Amino acid sequence: MSNMFSFLMKDKIIAPASFNRWRVPPASIAIHMCIGSVYAWSIFNPALIKELGVVSSSADDWTLSSVIWIFSVAIVFLGLAAAIAGKWLEDVGPRCVGVTAACLWGGGFIVGGLGIMTHQLWMIYLGYGVLGGCGLGLGYVSPVSTLIRWFPDRRGMATGMAIMGFGGGAMIGAPLKRFLLEHYAKAPEYLGVEGAVSLITEGGRRFAEVAGGKVEVVVASASEAAKLAIPGDPGVYIVGTGNTGAAGAFLTLGIVYFIVMMIAAFQYRVPAKDWKPEGYTPPSKDESSTKMKTLNNVHINQAIKTPQFYQLWIVLCFNVSAGIGVIGVAKTMMSEIFGSAPAGSEMATMVTAGFAGTYVLMISVFNMCGRFIWASLSDYIGRKNTYHCFFVIGTLLYLSIPFAANAVSVDPKIMYLIMFYAATMIIFTMYGGGFATIPAYLADMFGTMHVGGIHGRLLTAWSAAGVIGPLAIAQLRQLSVNDALNALKVKIDPTLFLEKFGAPIEKIDELVKAKTVTISSLMEIAPVGTVDPTPSLYNTTMYAMAFLLVIAFFSNLLIKPVNKKHYVENTHPGFNDK
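-> structure tokens emitted (578 positions)
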């Protein structure tokens, strides 16, 4: 079996002397753009939480808090796969790892698509989360150490180029996913306007009486009906008769990503031993010490015994945690903070579903550009100073978001939307820049010999962040939702509540659980002048994210060069000669 796949191995892809090193970055970018579509996961959220109801969530539909964890699982397995495969990458080379990544990422989408078709949430977790997550990790680390060796003169720029593709994956993935969702979507069967259909409420669910008996239904508002692939009329729709298009989108993407990643993986080459770019002179000992760039190497097993490894782990984990939770719910957050403006207002006219989708696209653009710009800048100002910028500026920007949310809930001016938009876009440049700069930071601290493997192990910080970020978003947001519902409950007229929902206000907990009662539906019968709490649902989360960046700042501040006792010549005598 090993002989069958020997053409994938490292010793079979050594580049000839005439090889142009600039052929490697495009292949790296292609693979990273495929797996980087994970950043557009929030595009699937509205479809998955309405898979049965289609126009609105039904009682048996998945909740937002259950679906966003799919994204988290994928990120967890990204880090675990990268940590385990990092050393394997050094042994077998980037082509073998890239091919494996293509099979896992493409196959994960297909398994997930089957899970959507059968309404089995665990299959989506297995396919997209576990298998796809492993494909993410392998695809992510496959080009990093190779590019650092091809570009010893511009480490930051080289890793920035590759990881730029990961940040830009959603730039292509977001519109592609929206197109596929609309292409495969089908509206559910329409029964008529709410007042013309006989409705009953049982166990918090809504049912309609039809000729054949009773069927479960959802009652869609005008705004919900307008968001269908083909806009429909507000009123009553039968649960389970439509299609959000999510299953078809998953299956199509799985096939497309597999083909592109396979082609790219076969473009990988590794430089010959002792190869150096023409005209390149390695830095002297004095120059390397002043710039915190070691000329020595640290063995992969020794690197995890140094305090620098764990300081960098905290730096990466908290920087990622602060951004990854927001990315996972970006479209939803934008809609909730600015989409509740009064109908007919300038804000309501601007913040449409298309605007929120474009917001996700712009996250990808700024994430991608930030990876290249910040990583390239780090070649000049140093990695440590680059991260100082991330944490100081980022803290101030996170604190500005609650200010904009509070202000817009009282006075929905466009300037608050601009403030929010600008703050989040700058945040995402630094979020992406952190990923792109960390491989060069590791090469500066531990040398290039095992940088791929060390980078893989450090990416367990990404796994932890994949839990911390979305968990903070989901839990803190839910606490805010509960507080908002309790505050609105005491303001609602019980008679209006009974008329609106067909159940007494004492049953509100049951109705909330069945998704019949929401903040937006309560606001329809709230007294005039009641401030909509929706824009402020994420305030506590933003304060928590800012606090994480403060901790990361001090971790980065305390980083010093690695003690020479950890160098490979002192821990593994003769290892460099192998």
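The chain has a mean pLDDT of 84.
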